[in-house]
Write a structure and sequence with these properties.
alpha/beta, three-stranded parallel beta sheet, 2 helices, about 15% strand, globular
Length: about 110
Amino acid sequence: WGGIDFTLWDVGGCDKIRPLWRHYFAGTTGTLFFIDAADRDRLPDAVFSLGLLLSQDSLAHVPFAILVNKSDLPHAMTVEEVRAACAPAMGADGAGRCEWFRVVAPTAAA
């Protein structure tokens, strides 16, 4: 797209593969982190996983975009609810490491 090459990895949130995530960090120039707005039960696990990624020194200068997926579904969490839940992982003020860029934005299921 426009002379830019993208390499994307869907590493998922399964506990069993978390130790393998570090193998995907080399050369990372951006991270898209999706949170399922329709799955309130898994939100704590998603926030935990986000915290693990944000604590990695090898990702210290990598921009993160946090996308609130399925926000169009009935009974889905709002962006504000997800942002509040993620605040501890992102830092008390939502900024965390000063060089990180974070976006919490809604996306649709369809």
